[in-house]
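Give me the fold.
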Amino acid sequence: MSASVLPAAQLLVTAALVAWMVTGFTRLPGRWLRWKMFCRANFTIVTLTGTKDGRTEPVNVYEYLSPGSFILGPPQLQAILTHLTHSGRYDRIDGHGRLLNADGEQPIEVRDSRVVL
């Protein structure tokens, strides 16, 4: 009898571990990225246009992130916008997009080079 208890216990522990891992990667209704690694991350997806001397052109803020970075929250976005306007590259930057985090998804706007949630 003791020979069959060990494999049964191993099977039970393995099944419990697999169930715990699967539920860790599922999301709750209205939630993005429930996994603990992402619980404090903010992902910003924005479309921006910069204006300089009356001419507009698209702005790719992701060019200004360090190589390998992809997490861009509102404070980092604001820092890049401030750099671009104070350096004289653009007079103003406007746009819109989405902010994704553990609380869900919400709209984000950039008006006159300021991030507005």
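The chain has a mean pLDDT of 84.
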